[in-house]
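Folds vary. Our protein:
___
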Amino acid sequence: MLIGGTSNVGKSTVAEVVAGRLGVEHRSTDYLARHPGRPWRTAEREVPPHVAEHYSTLAVDELISSVLEHYARLWPRIEEIVDTADGLVLEGSALWPERVAKLTGVRSVWLTAAEDTIRERIHDGGGYSTATDGERALMDKFLARSIRFQQLVLADVERLGLRHVEVDGRSVAEVADAILA
C-alpha cells in the first residue's frame, strides 16, 4: 500500500494505523532523503542555514521544480523497496502519481486536505504564533509550496483516475477505514 500527498496531510500518522491493521511494516520516503526539510525550528534543532536559504531565495515554482527533481532521483530506491517488500505500507510526498501508476502489485491512495487545514498544521507544527517575522516568512513559503504541490498531485491523480481521500472532518481511524475500504 502506497500513501502519497503533500506535507502535513497526515500521511505518516494514517500509514502507521493502516500498517498496524494490516500487520505489516510502515516506512516513510522521508527517511530515504529529506529535501531540504521543514524550515522551522523544533525543540531538537534549529533551522539549518541551507534550509533557510533554500526557502528564502527560491520562488514557489523553483521550490516545486527542486523537490520534483529530488523525488525523481529517489524513485529507483522507492521502486527497489516496493519490489522487495513482503507486506508494506510506504508513505511520503515522493510517491508521484504517474510513477506509482506504472507499478504492479500495489494499491495506492493520495491524501488531500483543504488549504486551511494544511495552513493550520504547518502553523501549529512550526510555532507560527511565537515565531519571528523571518521564521514566519520561511513557513509561509513552505506552505505555498505545499499547497501548490497538492494542486499538482491532485491534477495528476485525477488525470490518471487514481484514488484520493480527503482528510478534512475525519479522524485518523476514519481516514484509515476509507483507505482500507
